[in-house]
Design goal:
mainly beta, 12 strands, 12% helix, disordered N terminus
């Protein structure tokens, strides 16, 4: 009986870990923890973040993100003095073979545009489809999380210059 209870606990732990991490796979790509931060009531944009790992032997490319918003773009952030400017990456993001690419605040990210008075709220789920050049389409859920300040004043997309697109 003890052996079964250990097995049951191990199975539950494995399920809980997977459910918490919300990991998705398509082809040789693993997408880990797609998320976005809560936004202010007046925000018109929100950023999406995740890590994409290519376990294969050939490069792939994230070429689009589709969801129910007027516009979605893949961006990078470039500093111009003290001003962060987001630039649309029309060719998408290369995910090199055997490597990971992290989309994070202040760097590469997905930009959801045209929130139109419907802010992202903590625990909300935002369904989207990632489109990869080789691996194809992958349905994911961006989980909206609380924006926690880490003492370094984490970058807020509402304060950035969006003139790069």
């Amino acid at each position: 009986m003890k052996l079964m209870s250990y097995a049951a606990v191990a199975a539950l732990f494995t399920f809980a870990t997977t459910a918490t991490a919300h990991e998705y796979k398509v082809g040789d790509l693993v997408v880990d923890h797609p998320m976005a931060f809560e936004t202010a009531q007046t925000a018109q944009t929100a950023g999406g973040f995740m890590t994409i790992t290519n376990t294969g032997s050939a490069d792939d490319r994230l070429i689009a993100v589709e969801a129910d918003f007027p516009r979605i773009e893949i961006h990078t952030t470039e500093m111009d003095g003290d001003v962060a400017r987001m630039m649309h990456l029309e060719d998408g993001i290369v995910v090199p073979a055997g490597e990971s690419v992290t989309l994070q605040p202040g760097g590469l990210h997905v930009m959801f545009m045209g929130l139109g008075g419907d802010p992202f709220e903590v625990d909300e789920e935002v369904p989207a489809t990632l489109v990869f050049e080789e691996a194809g389409r992958l349905d994911v859920i961006f989980h909206v999380e609380e924006r926690k300040m880490d003492g370094h004043g984490e970058m807020d997309h509402g304060e950035m210059d969006h003139s790069g697109h």
